[in-house]
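Subject: for your reference before the review

Hello V.,

The reviewers asked for a structural picture of the protein, and I figured it would be easier to keep everything in one thread rather than splitting it across files. Below is the amino acid sequence we used in the manuscript, unchanged from the supplementary table.
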Amino acid sequence: MRQRISLILTGLLLFSLSACKPTNPGITTSWRVVQLLSQQEQIESITEVRTVRHCGPIVEQKAISCIAGTSNELSFNLGGSGGVSLGAELTMDASIGNALGLNRESGEQLELPIPPDGSVYHYIVTTEYRVLNGEALARSSSGEERNATYTFQATCTLRIESVEEDTCPQMAGNTGGETGGETSGEATPEATPTPDTTAMLDQANQLYQQGQFSEAINVYAQVLEIDPKNAIAYNQRGNAYRQLEQYDLCINDYTQAIQNASSQAESATYYANRGAAFALQGDLQRALEDFTQAITINPNFARAYESRAAVYQQLGMFDAMVADYSAFLSLKPDSVNAYLQRAQGYEHLGDLQAAIQDYTQATSLQPDDASAYFNRGQLYQQLGDFASARTDYDRVLQLDPNHARAYFARGSLAYQQGDYGTAISDLSRALDLGYGNPDVYAYRGLAYLQQQQGAPAVDDLTQTLNLAPERIDLYFYRAQAYVLTEDPKAAIEDLSTFLQLAPADSPLRPEAEKLLAALRKSEPATGGSPIVPATPVTPNK
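And here is what came back from the structure prediction:
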């Protein structure tokens, strides 16, 4: 998780960039995020231990909540080469927020049931975030353009992993309490906070829930001064450090929690949290070791399978990823996110039908989940089932009229079907909503070219080459657009560049050589279509 600080200024979001300090204290450069270039999804989880007591007159009813989809869950980071900062101010076009789904608030509140009189319940609760991340284009007040990375917590869900039961401290006999549910292991006196720390833990947890992580850390520290072996306080403070991206301190606290855990369920929880911190640091091997240890201790710990699957995904180990999500789903069969993630694993393994089945299951569990329809539509499009793809994209846009990527996908589908007018309309809408991926410009530019609209084709293909200069094929198509605008000099330059850079076996070479020869002789090209001899069905192929 990441620290996020935001202020509302004249309808725009101004993000404080902790890593961005002006090179000259007297000068502030303003940057504005104007396009989204790429987007990926991943799942991040964090687990905590919450205690509910029913000890005679002490009857507690506690609730845990999570919120996502608001400006507090969005961060942009903009930095120069070698770590040199670009400026202190970064604003965002409203269209970017629409494309991300900003301020479509998602959240849950989970009431923790009260135990019977004389008992204490230790709930192990996981908060699961669906996180969007990628790159965006930022433009300075002087016109300079740079890429900014972004992270956005789009949705969150809560679930109880397991429950352990203790007796109230004054009622405990020689048994040391009892455990139940999915795990085993005796509770010790440390499992139940002392009366002096109970209220302090509650206060710290409340601060944590409110996003006041630094303040919560201070109160957890006070708890640990009184009770230096309080594993729950170490874990919760570690969670707060993790939210602030202070991963070394976070890992130290999780390690202390592991050493002082009072039950197997707690120990597995703390290993899983430490594994997540290692993963956020990029130490995937140690993350795998901790998640595996959590599973060894508690084979029914769903969150550990889910988190290990995410690491396998980062490592490209898709067979193992699918196996872990399958294990997770055997424990939590109603998890929409797990079906979405496993489907991606099947996609990487080339089993598109299995992926479609998982996306279909996700839509059955959550009929208003636009992402499942969108992903399934892309697979239908890939398989050539254009009617099913169009149905899914239409459904996405019913659920979310500002889903920029769905307009892009539907526009690319229309292009593949030869409906260039519809393609231009949908692709333009995607751009209006802030999705400026190079392929959007490429498809629209080629659609204009197919309609023999030279000037807009030149503009779009030029923009694509600015964003993705490795797309050598587009020099060939832009040359044809220049022919339409009666600019043979520019066309000759583009064709020469294409022939210099393109692979020797490029299927476009014969057409490019023919057109170049004709232009040099000031004659029209012969053979095939007079203007567009070889426009691809899919521009990025």
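For the response letter, the relevant points are probably these. The first strand starts at residue 6 and ends at 9. The two ends are 36 Å apart (CA to CA).

Happy to draft the paragraph if you're swamped.

O.
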